[in-house]
Specification:
With 290 residues, the chain is mainly beta. The chain is built from three helices and 21 strands. The structure holds 6-O-phosphono-beta-D-tagatofuranose.
Length: 290
Amino acid sequence: TTAAAVAATSVVVLDRGNNTTCTINLHGATVVSWRVNNQEQLFVSKLASFDGKKAIRGGIPFVFPQFGPWSFGPQHGFARITRWHLDRAPERLHNGDVEAIFSLMDNEFTRSIWNYQFRITYRLILREKELHFHIGVYNPSKDLSFTFNMLLHTYLKVPDVRRCQITGLQGCHFIDKTREGALYQEGREVVTVNEWTDRIYQHTPQEHVITNVVSGRKMRLHKYNFPDTVIWNPWIDRSREMSDFGDDEFPNMLCVEAGNVSSPVILLPGTCFEASQILQQFKCPYNLQL
Ligand code: TA6
């Protein structure tokens, strides 16, 4: 990907070979495709808009500095609807992985909504069956702190969401947005989704496994410094309310979103906050991987 090509198309492609690629749209630094052996792992709605005016409906939008409704600006903040900069074009590392680095810093648009200086560095690494996300948020101010939410709004592509199971939520408290934000505790060892689901699980473990993703395989989500996990599927009624989401698409997606939601991060002047996520596709129980 040359800088000129990126400027023209706003799209950056990491190509590791063996039909393993990752495509990022500079609009929101949204990962819009991740193909492993030519199998797409992410859901993007057929009605998604790429006009740069709203968030792309699918892939992995970058939510910052706000999760959810925001009295200062757009829901889920401005990062996912702002054009990011490609700091380092895709580069093959010594071990065959491909890395690219994106950044977003305060500008006239962001300052008109949220008057803080910030700089986000977003490093993506494409491995054989893994996609790594390393994020740094830096506060360059000499005297002003700021607080923020941050979340990777991952839309997994699945053959049928009703057959998916999600581990790593048992015992966690969650805010249920389908029940006026009431607080509950998860009793199930394995969570399934068979209705409109919109839950903010708090202080979740570092690892979730989602079964029955593409090709009947499993997706392992490992997170560092992202204490919460949002599980979302709009189901039929809310699908109909979204103009950029097909009425018949909800069975083919499951959002499992690692983030800092329930307690915002406080970033002191001159300091940096780091968080990471690893998505790994595998086909047999992870601990039995031969
Ligand atoms: O992550 C779940 C959620 O907060 C849901 O409440 C739903 O609003 C979803 O995000 C999508 O939000 P959006 O602003 O992209 O339509």
